[in-house]
Design a protein that fits this description.
With about 350 residues, this protein is of the alpha/beta class. The chain contains 12 helices and 15 strands. The chain has a single domain, classed as Rossmann fold.
Length: about 350
Amino acid sequence: MSTPTEVPKSIVDVAHLEDLLSAPSAGVVETLAKLPGDILVLGAAGKMGPTLSRMAKRATDAAGTKRRVIAVSRFSSAGQEGVFHAAGVETIQCDLLDPAQVERLPDAPNIIYMAGMKFGATGQEALTWAMNAYLPSLVCRRYPRSRIAAFSTGNVYDFVPATSRGPRETDAINPRGEYAMSCLGRERIFEHFSRTQGTLVSLLRLNYAVEMRYGVLVDIGRKVFEGRTVDVTMGYANVIWQGEANAMSLQSLGRAASPPFVVNIAGPEIISVRQVAERYAKIFGKPVQFSGTESQDALLSNGELGYRLFGRPVVTVDQMIAWIADWLARGGTSLGKPTHFETRDGKF
């Protein structure tokens, strides 16, 4: 999605949604035209991986470049691999925590690293650290000469005043809770190998991606639609359309560096949870009930660097709310994975 004229009024169904989420911008096509070699997407079966992999394949085709796009995951659910195959993306089943299996993965000059653990981290802290801080070392040792775009999170920052525009990439970090600390550990491991073996890395601090089936705006809209109370204690957030997060992530391969290039991937608008809920209530013609009082700080990120390098997001918060409200009213499918964005103690 590269121009405002490509934004539809409504998203018809899942096929239409995934087509939009995987539509490469001109910047993605240009980036992948310049970068030779295959693309390996590690941890590809999560919420973003399928459409990001498909975008990589579509951009490759549009650029007229010959390369394999290969999605790597355990693929523990039936039918997951078929989604990738239908898009022309190859798949490899792999337990990434098994060093022997990682060693057997094919060579690839370009790596998108999406593996990680967030939900369920509380009570499984050791596994969380293994996934988020140990696994990167296996990947860096296996691919010392590859470009690696590694997903991180805005949770590595501390809460900031809601009146601010959020931390920039050069601002201090202060993760809350073991999940966020393990994500900082992931960044530090990538930085270590980038500095010591010259691996080119981009670190992507995402905060928060949204589509019709999950995301902060979906969580709020579903509560209003179902008549559930909306907690406004975490009163503010950034959101970004997942298709544009996909595009920024792929373009970041062209910026990978040693030491790592760091970029926030976040929407330009700071949403008020209360105001978004009230918008949904008006659209649905339903009352909304709130609990809590807005805290004066929140987990926010400043995405200006990404906009300068990769283009400003086209899909606005207003557009996402309209799409999601329509989707919910028509009984559209859900991934059933709440973001828990309202969490303030760092426990997920």
